[in-house]
Every structure is written in structure tokens, then in C-alpha cells.
Amino acid sequence: MSYLRATRVASRVRFLSTKQSTSSIQEIDKYNDLPPNSRVFSMIQPTGRIHLGNYLGAVKSWRTLSNTNPDSEFIFGIADLHAFTTLKPATELKENRYQAIASLLASGLDVSKCVLYFQSAVPEHLELNWYLTCMTSMGQLNRMTQWKLKAQQSQTSSITDEKVMESTKAGLFCYPALQNADILLYRSTHVPVGDDQSQHLELCRNIAKLFNNTYGVDYFPLPKTLLTPAKKILSLKNPEKKMSKSDPVQASCVYVTDSPEQIQSKIKKATTDSIQGAWNYDPVSRPGISNLINIISGLTNESIDNTVANLHHLKDHKSLKDYVADLIVNEFDDKRQLYDELLQNKDYLEQVCKQGRDKAREMALVNIGEIKTIIGMD
Ligand code: TYM
User: Fold this and answer.
1) 31 near 204, Cβ under 8 Å?
2) For a disulfide at 267, which of 65, 196, 278, 325, Cβ 3.0-4.6 Å?
3) Nearest CA to ligand 1 atom 33
4) Are 54 and 69 in contact (CB under 8 A)?
């Protein structure tokens, strides 16, 4: 395949708007300032119901972005192939997949404004994964911090360490290459995620650049990371760590589907401090309080400064916690009820996913065909 031919292929294909500002990481402050014709892509793992961190770090912004930018395209997926890096009984994985799709719909995603589908239903993810795995070095993968967290290794550990190598599955280690394939398969321009995905997205841009340079094309836009202001919600019990479904401490994590009593009890037990007087946002010396302020800011769409200024009427830690619990209960009340109804209606969930799969696959097939032409695999 000559470079000339590759360039012709690239110019034949529809060129997505890459009218991007110079920074590759953007905080979403105004949801409707996406350039027209953007293609926004993101995914979530089906590890069951979604939690407050997923909601404020990602899913709420998916909803708002897709509702406020009719001239852009939105593709959101359930990353079930990624979830396979942790083996589960088949019935549990299947139920988790339903729960994830029901959580997203209950969180307000409107399937007339976005494509919603299961990653495993579009096999082109796996095909592109192979091509991109072949372009990604072991060193790049080794520097990623997520696999170390998930494999319960220290952040300074390395795959070259014999013990680490023996205990880490290849799928978990190579997972970022699949994530790159997810994003690039749709030639995405923007990826709204929480802070913990920033490193993976940096790698994705590097691989996209490498592909474009290797084949002398301008095929993949360099996808921008879109971070919400509440980009990192921390564990309620240990605000040194992010809020996570895998945290064995139940009270560390609030789920969209928790009952008002569960939410109140978890917030009541949240770790804070014993400092009295005015509230201030200081993640280093007041991590627990700052986490609650960040949660309020995410739920009310107010800046951190405004949020702190608005808290002056709350005189003690108990009233602050009651206030946070009320906000979360209000935010999730209708979502919990809808979630329960949706889970009873699996035929509907399947219909939504089939419709999403057909739309996603249509785009994926066009792009993988072009990619194969560019690399000489057609
Ligand atoms: P996952 O399933 O762990 O998380 C889904 C989304 O939720 C965000 N998030 C958080 N945001 C703020 N605070 C938290 N405590 C918190 N916990 C999770 C994550 O940043 C993410 O945006 N590898 C990805 C899934 C994935 C993906 C992709 C994402 C697969 N392919 C392509 C974007 C593009 C993951 O495990 O997310």
C-alpha cells in the first residue's frame, strides 16, 4: 500500500471537524460550546449499577452534552469486553450488563439523541484493537496506572517484575489498546470521562498520531479529553482514594439506585474532620469536606467558589451532611424508580441495545473498511 494511495483514501473519507482549541484537555464549563459536527464518544464498564463518581464524573455530562448539541453525534457504550478482564460467572456478567444499560437510561440518556450499545456487539472493536495493539509499546502500557490499581500492585511496580508478570492477566495489561480502539473506531473528536481516564486518553492521542504519521494520513482526529468540574469524586470513607465500585467498604460509595435511607446513612458516616468555623475547599488539609463540597458543586452545577459561599447558613458538620444527603436523594429519586421499572422490562432493554448496535456497527464497518485500506489489509 503506497502512501499516495493511503492519502487518497484519507481525503475521500468524511473529515470530521477537528476545530479544537490547542489544549487536548478541556474542562466542560459550558455544555453547548462543542464545535459543530463533533463526534463524542465514551464508555462505562458494566460492573453493575453506576455510582455517584460515574454519574458526576461522566454520565451526567453525557446526558447534558447530548441534549444541548443537536449538531453533534454522541456514541455511548457499555464496555463489556473491558469488564471481562475480571472473570465473573456468566449469569452475573449478563445481569451486570442489563443493570448498566438500565442505569444509563434511568440517568436520563435519551436514545433519540445518542447511540447506546454493548461493545461486544460490534466486533470491529476487536479487529481495530489488534492493529492498535501492534502499534503500542509494552513500555507505554507499563506506564499506565490503572492496570496496577486493578491488579492490586503498587504504582511503582513494573510488568518486568516476575511476580507482577505472573499475577497480571495479559488482557488487563493490554486494556488501554482496546480503549484506544473503542475511541478511534468512530473517529471520535471528544471523550467525556472522569480524571482517572486522562492518562489513557493521552496514550490514545499518541497512538492516533503514530497511525497518522506512519501512513501519511490525517485519518484519526486527536480526541480531546472532556473533564467535568467534578472530575474526581472520592471515597466517602477514605477520601485519599477515588470512589469505586470495587471498594469493599459498602459505605464508601453511593449508587444511583440506593434508597433515601441508604444514601442518608452513607453520607452520615462519611469521613470529614473536626475543624470548626467557616467551610473551605482544601483537598489537601480537608479532603473529606472538600469531597462533599465537590459533590454539591457537581449536583448543583455551581462553581466551587459559589458552592462554598452558599454554605454559610450550615453551621455544623451534621447540617452539611444532611444538606448533601438531601441533594443526592433528590437527584436520584426518580432515577431509582425508573431503574427498577427498566430492569423488569428486559425486552425493552434488548430492543434499545439492538437499535444502538445497528447504528454503531454501521459507522464501525465504514471506518474499519477505510482503516484496512489505509494499512493495506483490504
Ligand atoms: P469506568 O467504568 O471505571 O468508569 C466510567 C466513567 O466514570 C468515571 N469515573 C469517575 N469519575 C469521577 N470520580 C470517580 N470516582 C469516578 N469513577 C469512575 C470514569 O472516569 C469514566 O469516565 N476504561 C473505562 C471505560 C472505557 C472507556 C472507553 C472510556 C472503555 N473504553 C473509551 C472512554 C472511552 C472505565 O473503566 O471506566
Assistant:
1) no
2) 325
3) 42
4) no
Is 150 an annotated catalytic residue?
A: yes
Is residue 94 part of the annotated active site? The answer reads no
- 169 annotated active-site: no
All three cell numbers of 134, joined, read 501492534
Query: What residues flank ligand 1, with Cβ below 6 Å?
Result: 42-45, 53-54, 57-58, 79, 82, 179, 182-183, 191, 193-194, 196-197, 231-233, 242-243
**Parallel, antiparallel or unpaired: strands 39-44 and 224-227:** unpaired
Burial class, 140, CB count within 10 angstroms (exposed 0-12 / middle 13-18 / buried 19+): middle
With cell 454520565, the residue in question is 59
Profile the chain (378 residues) by mean pLDDT over runs of 10 residues.
40 33 72 87 92 96 95 98 95 96 96 98 98 98 93 90 93 97 98 96 98 98 93 95 90 95 97 92 96 96 95 94 98 95 96 98 98 97
DSSP label at 332? Answer: H
In the chain, what's the furthest Cα-to-Cα distance? 71
